[in-house]
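Researcher: Here's a chain I'd like modeled. Treat it as a single chain, no partners, no ligands.
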Amino acid sequence: MLYDVWRHSVILIFIRNLLWDFSTKGIPRIIFCGYDEAGYICIPRALLESIVDRFQEADIPITLTDHRTVGNVLDVTFNGALYDEQMRAAKAIFRT
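Model: Modeled as a single isolated chain. Structure tokens:
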């Protein structure tokens, strides 16, 4: 948790300094979003495609093992009202 707060703060400081034309020396530009576990690199799912593409561009062999769980189906209903913007967003999501 503390690491996530630190990582978020570093990103904000970097962006602020970049936009205000201040020095960004010593501020990491790239933040690692994964973690190492038992000799493996665990990454967020959203990064998978771009990482595989970069490995292929560099001719680096890659072995992927998916350890995600299927999860449980929940039978839930929404009891509330959406704002107009939320309704448009929900319709757009369910259309695709």
